[in-house]
């Protein structure tokens, strides 16, 4: 059982999201970019994990036809490794299934093994590389794709809190 709750992001969350962006990403989004994303509820779904009134993580996804695109995910520094990102992804995955989406994709820096481990647990697999994808660092991105399938089917590869 996690102590945090997950809800849809709102405009009033933007400063907290900006704080996570600025500490967790080499190329953080701006406040206006975040506001645009949160506000575009037709094609985007932004969620936050809230613990004791503080946003400890967020996830932004985008819908393109029958595909889910993971746009961004970040956990507040100091709260990593507790399952925050996993529960945000679980929530988005269930929502994607309910919407009838069939495939999911994202880009992740080749050096970002932490995030890759998270994604691999959802069945994501590398299908290609985008050279120099990240403007500031010039780092390559791995392009990952997954089938959106029932989370129960993925259980053996997922972390468990059982002793
Ligand atoms: C990548 C990122 C989102 C992961 O967030 P997180 O909240 O730490 O992720 P989780 O806790 O759900 O999972 C991470 C690890 O914690 C473990 N974990 C999950 N629940 C746990 C729990 N209750 N107790 C202890 N560990 C747990 C997982 O097994 C996982 O282990 P692994 O990385 O060794 O496989 C976070 O590190 C981050 O914000 N990074 C910077 C931004 C970034 O790179 N975003 C991705 C861009 S593509």
Can you give keywords for this protein?
163 residues; single chain; binds coenzyme A; alpha+beta
Q: How much is the average pLDDT?
A: 93
Listed once per kind, the bound small molecules are: coenzyme A
* Secondary-structure-derived class: alpha+beta
CATH architecture group name: 3-Layer(aba) Sandwich
The low-confidence parts are none
Strand order of the main beta sheet, please?
A: 1-2-3-4-5-7-6
Name of the level-1 CATH class: Alpha Beta
The largest β sheet comes out as: 7 strands, mixed
CATH superfamily: Gcn5-related N-acetyltransferase (GNAT)
CATH topology descriptor: Aminopeptidase
- Quaternary structure state of the chains depicted: single chain
End-to-end separation: 13 Å
Large-scale geometry? globular
Could you explain how this protein is built, in words?
The protein has 163 residues and is of the alpha+beta class. The chain has a single domain (5-156), classed as 3-Layer(aba) Sandwich (Aminopeptidase). It has helices at 14-24, 31-39, 84-99, 113-120, and strands at residues 5-8, 44-51, 54-64, 67-75, 103-109, 125-130, 141-147. It has a seven-stranded mixed sheet, sandwiched between helices. Helix 3 (84-99) links the parallel strand 4 (67-75) and strand 5 (103-109). The longest helix has 16 residues, at 84-99. The chain starts with a strand and ends in a 16-residue tail after the last strand. The structure holds coenzyme A. Residues 24-25, 57, 73-75, 80-86, 108, 112, 114-115, 117-118, 159, 161 line the site of coenzyme A.
